[in-house]
Amino acid sequence: MGNLKSLLQLDLSENQLSGSIPLSFGNLSSLTMKSPFSNSLSGSIPPILGNLKSLSTLRLHVNQLNGVIPPSIGNLSSLRNLSLFNNGLYSSIPEEIGYLMSVSELELCTIILVGLFLIQLVALHLCLHLRLHRWTVSVLLATALLL
């Protein structure tokens, strides 16, 4: 599938897919939407997804993904919608999330947070929908709400 350089949208939602996200997805340079939500995908979110500069929608929610949110997500300069909720992510929110200048919907619910958590919502000035409920938090929480 990584050879489909002209592919614009990939919707694999609700297909009972299992296994890890293939690294070859990082080669889909024209992709604007990736939605493999509501499956049984496992493993970590591959940092190579940060190479998808045209991606506007990344919906990985309701899977069995674990590990951390890769800082490379902050490279997705066209990203408008990011949904990572209902997985087994155990992470601090990377500072690079603040680089998502075009994001309007950010859903990070049900993530187990560890470490120092500092989110500067100033960088997310276009964010219209921010879902952060039902976190398990074992962190020092500091939020700058300078909107």
From TrEMBL:
Keywords: Cell membrane, Glycoprotein, Leucine-rich repeat, Membrane, Receptor, Repeat, Signal, Transmembrane, Transmembrane helix. It comes from the Eukaryota. Its main location: membrane. One of its GO terms (cellular component) is plasma membrane. The keyword Membrane applies. The chain crosses the membrane at residues 110-128. InterPro entries: Leu-rich_rpt (IPR001611), LRR_dom_sf (IPR032675). Coiled coil: none annotated. It is found in: Cell membrane. It is a single-pass type I membrane protein. SUPFAM superfamilies: L domain-like. Belongs to the RLP family. This is Leucine-rich repeat-containing N-terminal plant-type domain-containing protein.
